[in-house]
Amino acid sequence: QVQLQESGPGLVKPSQMLSLTCTVSGGSITTSPYTWSWIRQPPGKGLEWMGAIVYGGITYYSPSLRSRTSISRDTTKNQFSLQLSSVTPEDTGLYYCARDVNWRFDYWGQGTQVTVSS
Q: Which pLDDT value is given to residue 50?
């Protein structure tokens, strides 16, 4: 059974960087053909895919967030991370990590609330 767990600060000040980590258990993040994504949900809105890192290490980003987003991984810890720079209150929301194959998401973390506020 694959499990994902998000971790990181729940409160970030405007203009600062948001950093979150997803710890994966029950499966390796380097195993083909899986992709590991970050997805968020602002309050009262739908899910927004932010970006992903593929089992081989290639990264993909949402065009709307590409300039502010970086996804990396630590294979020794079986973790992948999200960094979102220059945050504003519009970046407030629930942040999820998830696994997918060809855009079919089968495992999700429970989500972590991030609030951007001074």
A: 98
Q: Which amino acid type is present at position 56?
A: G
* Phi and psi, residue 98, nearest 5°: -155, 160
Residue written as token pair 């973390």? 109
| Cα gap 64→19, rounded to integer Å | 18
Nearest to 118 by CA among 97, 93, 95, 89: 89
User: Kindly report the CA angle at 43 between 36 and 66, in degrees rounded to 5?
Assistant: 45
Q: Which phi and psi (to 5°) does residue 78 adopt?
A: 55, 50
Among 43, 48, 39, which Cα is nearest to 95's? 39
Query: Residue 27 class from Cβ within 10 Å (0-12 exposed, 13-18 middle, 19+ buried)?
Result: middle
- Residue length, the chain? 118
Please report, for the chain, how many H helices and E strands are present, in that order: 0, 11
- Token pair belonging to 7: 């971790």
107 pLDDT tier (thresholds 50, 70, 90): very high
Interatomic CA distance for residues 22 and 68, integer angstroms: 19
